[in-house]
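Posted in: Structural Biology > Protein-Ligand Complexes

Title: Requesting predicted complex, 5-phosphoarabinonic acid in pocket

I'd be grateful if someone could produce the 3D structure tokens for the following input. Sequence and ligand are given below.
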Amino acid sequence: MYINFDEKKGYLSSKILEYQEVVDSAHEALHAKTGKGNDFLGWIDWPEKYDKEEFVEILKHAKKVKADADVLVVCGIGGSYLGARAAIEMINGLYPKGQVEIMYLGNTLSSTYIVQALDYLADKNFYVNVISKSGQTTETAMAFRLLKQLLKSKHQENYKDYIIATTDPKNGTLRAEVNDVGYKSFSIPADIGGRFSVTTAVGLFPLAVAGISIEEVMRGALTAYKELDNPDLNVNPAYQYAVARRIMEKQGKSVEMLVSYEFQMTMFAEWWKQLFGESEGKEGRGILPTSVNFSTDLHSMGQFIQEGSKNLFETLIAVEEPMEDMIFPIDEEDKDNMNYLSGKSLDYVNTQARLGTLAAHYDEGSVPNLIITIPDTSAYTFGYLTYFFFKSIAMSAYLINVNPFNQPGVEVYKRNMFKLLGKI
Ligand code: PA5
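-- Reply #1 --
Done. Output follows.
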């Protein structure tokens, strides 16, 4: 397997295998598309069946934008935002050189954020990729109108050349606007929900503009699709992880903390939180997904994890090869007493922090650790890892008989907000 699942000390292995029968039937329901939410299972075989013509068009148009733009504004929220940002930061790092700057709007109602972002864009040559499956999400639609006005003030009637819309192929307000105005557009397949859409045009167009090989992303997703289409709990790490979560829950662990030692994985954790929280947290069920970034958060959350309530377990994403590394230098004066690290690589130090923390949390703090090891933070790995988590959460939710593909609870805040704003 390209990525590996483990639990420290292997104490769960035999318990995991006890779930084989239920996993077999959930796997069958997923792949035969007969289980709960089966009209949103388009992601299952997407790595093989994705629209190749649209893919070529994405590459072509991204090349054009890349050559011309200072900034690409990704205007979307939730599943129409987090995946692209997670990918761009994981794959390019946080200070990429020589790439088009990617900004995010339509993901908040904060007036300060919106006004500052518009102000920042005023003298930039920017394009907008507005992404909304429904085409009527308030945050996104508000920001899009403001961005359109800014584009109109810069380019008059040519403003539409600076807009790329990614939306439902047929329905919704945004698709109607595309048909009316004639923006360049891409489609979000009807049977793929927002949080499962990162390897559709939703993620692929911004990634391509950010200089990422979307061919590699799809190659990674395809490998995952093939490798993980196997219900056998002896070999399928996505299902091992899914079952391990359920065992944790039975042992009273109601909180899962996704741990990474790479800053560039912070937004990946946000993407994962949405995927897991929105898919599983319903009908009074589900494990609360949270995240930390070590060693940074060891200086803030470390105390709680070590000695606080014992209701959590950690899921560590361990990266084998960092994107960058360097040797820590010697200093003849050694006034800071740091020469004991001279000649060691920065990643060596990070790895020792990880090993030391695992021992502290698991052995001394009795906090169980599930470990997902990935070779690197490449585009290929991103494609694989996202599919891995799709498969894990679908299985996890089916194991508690929850439909992973809807989000009825999200409507409640919208209803109240629309009432207060006089929309309904
Ligand atoms: O996963 C989901 O379905 C949601 O997070 C949506 O992606 C999010 O609410 C944005 O919706 P839309 O793409 O319709 O604007």
